Amino acid sequence: MALWLVLLSALFLLADSASFVNVFIGTTNGGHVFPGATLPHGMVKVGLDTDSPGNQAGYDANATFNATGFSQLHDSGTGGGTSLSNFKLWPLPECKSFASCNTSMSVRKTLRKVLPDGSPDDAGSPGYFATNLSTGVQVELTASRRTALHRYTFPPSSREPRIVVDITNDGLTSNTEPVVNVNTATGRVTGGARFASSFGPGRYNVYTCVDFKGDGYDFKAPTEYGVWLENAPVQNSTQLIQLYSGFLSEMGALLTFPPSPNSIHTTILARVGVSFISSDQACANAESEIPNFDFDETVTTAREIWNELLSRIQVDTQGVDKEITELFYSSLYRTHISPADYTGENPNWSSTEPYYDSFYCNWDTYRTLYPLMSLHDPEVFARIVRGMINIQQHEGWLPECRGATVQQFIQGGSNGDPILGEFFVKFHEHASALNVSAGDLYTALLADAEEQPPNWNLQGRQATVWKQYNFIPSDIYGPGGTATKQVSRTLEHSFGDFAISQVARILNKTDDTTKYQARAGNFINPRFADGQWNYTDPRHCSVNDPLLSTCYLDATNRDGFYESSPMVYVPQDTAKLILLQGGNESFINRLNLIFDQNYFDVTDEPSQQIPFMYHYVNRPGLSTQRSRMILAESYNTTVNGLPGNDDSGAMGSYAVFYLMGMYPLPATRQFLLASPYFPKVTFHNLLFNTTTTIIANNFRGNPQNGMGGTVFVKSVTIDGQPWHSNCYLDWDVFVNGSTIELELTSDINTTCGEGPEGLPPSLSTGGYI
Length: 769
Ligand SMILES: *[C@@H]1O[C@H](CO)[C@@H](O)[C@H](O)[C@H]1NC(C)=O
Ligand SMILES: *[C@@H]1O[C@H](CO)[C@@H](O)[C@H](O)[C@H]1NC(C)=O
Ligand SMILES: *[C@@H]1O[C@H](CO)[C@@H](O)[C@H](O)[C@H]1NC(C)=O
Ligand SMILES: *[C@@H]1O[C@H](CO)[C@@H](O)[C@H](O)[C@H]1NC(C)=O
Ligand SMILES: *[C@@H]1O[C@H](CO)[C@@H](O)[C@H](O)[C@H]1NC(C)=O
Ligand SMILES: *[C@@H]1O[C@H](CO)[C@@H](O)[C@H](O)[C@H]1NC(C)=O
Ligand SMILES: *[C@@H]1O[C@H](CO)[C@@H](O)[C@H](O)[C@H]1NC(C)=O
Ligand SMILES: *[C@@H]1O[C@H](CO)[C@@H](O)[C@H](O)[C@H]1NC(C)=O
Ligand SMILES: *[C@@H]1O[C@H](CO)[C@@H](O)[C@H](O)[C@H]1NC(C)=O
Ligand SMILES: *[C@@H]1O[C@H](CO)[C@@H](O)[C@H](O)[C@H]1NC(C)=O
Ligand SMILES: *[C@@H]1O[C@H](CO)[C@@H](O)[C@H](O)[C@H]1NC(C)=O
Ligand SMILES: *[C@@H]1O[C@H](CO)[C@@H](O)[C@H](O)[C@H]1NC(C)=O
Description:
Keywords: Signal. One of its GO terms (biological process) is glycoprotein catabolic process. InterPro entries: 6-hairpin_glycosidase_sf, GH-type_carb-bd, GH92_a_mannosidase_put, GH92_N, Glyco_hydro_92, PNGase. With 769 residues, the protein is of the alpha+beta class. It folds into 3 domains: 1-26 and 313-341 and 593-769, GH92 mannosidase domain (GH92 mannosidase fold); 31-308, Beta-galactosidase, Chain A, domain 5, CATH 2.70.98.10; 356-523 and 525-530, Glutathione S-transferase Yfyf (Class Pi), Chain A, domain 2, CATH 1.20.1050. Helices cover 26% and strands 19% of the residues. It contains 18 helices and 27 strands. The longest helix is centred in the middle third of the chain and has 21 residues, at 486-506. Residues 1-14 have low confidence and may be disordered.
């Protein structure tokens, strides 16, 4: 009986993890989260665009902003300029005549319907999005990998329902050379244009193919058609081609459809294929992916794919607030939006390898997103790694902040290195089964480490200088005379070289292991080429900076630090850092000061590891409490429930790890351990065909504000045997499918265990393997 109960509860949990996902978390006040419809890592991300100044992902949950269109491509959680948002469709329920329709974005835009609580009448779930516009049109969206399906239900008053296809208005209103064609026999609209990238100097081409179908009735052709330029539709015109190199005007197509003979509501389906190659390919993508315009089937398929993926991590929700489970699955969901699978859509070279894009940016995601992928999605991780290696083979260096097929600005370093390192440390024994060539992977890492690209602001490193000095001097300038982020880059390059040393060790390349370990030992402060250190006020770039420095990618940031202050930027060799800072007590005092005086910056990634660093001084209870306090203060399930940009899922993966009671160190086998927010968490890894279970014995729920509670780990067993540390787990447990049992206590003074082997390893205390 016990067995079937277990099976039954497993079935119950597996059924619909997607129902716990709230896609609207972080969709206003700077989270920049995309709440529209996409498959996991889908290329097409179809969603509502608004005129919000924070519309980096198109959407804003604040109902005061107007809807401007329903576009096919987005990123999620990014900064920079508004990316993508190409090819908006827009329903017009009634204009007096074809020629009088408002087509231009600034006059057609309108508010959404507002619910009694002041929120917009929007709904969303994995693979589905809907809104009601104030014009009475209901808009529903779903997607396959390269195709969107829109469903427009017009109000009964609408006897001449029309749809605008806008070829030109991307998020940056940056189009040049737009083309639009209307097929009068079928109503098919094809076209494309060239647009600016959001975080770099490049431009990209993208194309579309839009077909229409009556829902519940058939029509042969639209009753009226034409093209439009700005706010002037021209009936019976079927083509517009503009050859100009600056953004001049808006254009697209406008179609009128016969009303439904069967219903007071006319419902029109619009199938929108997208391609970075050609409009012909956009049509072919749409025809093969959604041949029947079956909206409900497309939604169901998308949800099944999401459910299969999300259900690989299961939580026991007994004694856990519903909000915590919602936070968990919503955060996990957001880690699978980017990067996006553009396989078959690479305009720059042909290859049979997978092609992923929208790495925006590896600097954000290498710390926690890929280690999370290691736990439950190694096949997709391997495809992403193959795509990155293929980019290195054709462009010379691994991608860093690539978006929409173009290279964009680096942030701190070439953080493809720790991502490849993470993959190889975890999966080297399976690399060939996953079609990842160890030799090609290593060659790609060495290219980043050793060869300087013509413009290391776009990918790669300032390698010549790095190799010569082993730090990036403050007084050696970059492309265009820029001198930015030298300290941050020194740190990131050290970590990149640490990741390479980990790969070299597995490949038995002893000399390289020694070489890259030595290069990983660089600590930070601004330093000149002659070896002199420059003084830095430790408050610099923090909230307590008397100069209020911005420390982002801008011309005024010439002082070495990027999105972090000298107080918080902490490297991989924590044991050595503790020594340099005067031992355990002063290290604890320094960590406390970072939190008590607000140096901890929850919105930027360099701070992420700090709450867990008490582990390295044998005070894991302090890490547990600190990380729980941060989660309680800064993460929740409201539309503003993120403390900053989600950064392509980086913040989502951070929350998932905290909720599972872990924190990873990429490119190592080490997971720092605390207590989960659930009495039980299981991970299913399809590659190993194993299930790993973490059980928290004596689980008593989660303190609201993160303080106190029965949440501290007193002892650990693995498969029934005592484990030597309460502070970290080895990757082995996830390979073998172990059962890890934690004994919880309310004693915050609990330690990592007896003797030095209880402490998590550091590079200078014997390393990570
Ligand atoms: C919505 O945005 C408006 C305009 O920026 C602002 O005044 C208002 O406070 C916002 N509402 C909410 C609920 O954030
Ligand atoms: C929404 O559009 C209306 C009409 O175009 C305009 O007056 C209003 O300012 C817009 N709202 C915002 C928040 O821009
Ligand atoms: C077109 O836009 C103008 C200016 O915003 C507005 O006055 C007019 O009502 C709109 N027409 C329709 C049919 O929505
Ligand atoms: C929009 O309106 C329709 C019809 O009244 C309703 O069924 C739906 O729940 C509303 N909201 C959304 C987001 O579709
Ligand atoms: C790839 O091709 C597109 C379209 O031709 C071009 O705009 C872009 O700059 C190319 N990207 C690279 C990295 O060469
Ligand atoms: C467009 O063509 C249709 C059918 O030939 C004709 O009835 C209509 O008057 C034309 N419209 C304009 C504005 O030329
Ligand atoms: C690896 O490549 C082989 C040969 O191309 C193919 O049959 C196999 O499906 C691939 N495996 C994976 C995991 O991609
Ligand atoms: C590295 O050496 C170990 C021990 O001799 C051996 O088991 C392993 O296969 C070697 N790995 C490679 C990639 O040569
Ligand atoms: C040295 O640091 C100070 C601030 O601490 C800064 O103003 C100055 O620009 C730095 N000097 C150089 C040459 O980078
Ligand atoms: C939710 O989190 C946001 C971002 O950290 C915060 O500003 C807001 O106060 C929190 N709201 C609630 C109800 O806790
Ligand atoms: C996975 O493991 C289960 C038992 O744990 C076994 O029944 C199943 O056949 C395995 N699947 C594969 C593909 O090896
Ligand atoms: C933990 O240690 C502190 C002093 O270091 C002490 O004040 C506190 O009572 C201890 N907590 C428990 C639960 O023993």
